[in-house]
Input
Amino acid sequence: MRAVQLGSKMPYIERIGNEKINEQLYQWYHVMTDDRIDGYNGWACKKKIYEVKMECERLLAQKELRVYEGEPEWLQDKKEQIAIDKLTGAYTGVPYWG
Output
């Protein structure tokens, strides 16, 4: 584990980071959509994505979790950007991580 310093904020522990998490999700996605790979492996990868999604939803639903300053605005901005990207065609799909 490594401590990550965020400006003048208190450091926190991060084991792998968002880039590596996304890389793994993209790899599973490409296994699921590759016609050369059987459905058994595609389904195994899809289950893994569902498990990650369900765990994230479980953690975000905990009553002890507070709403942070700027969080509602950040979430709204993200939702709006996704909608804009879809409407303008900028939402082009999933990066390839081979």
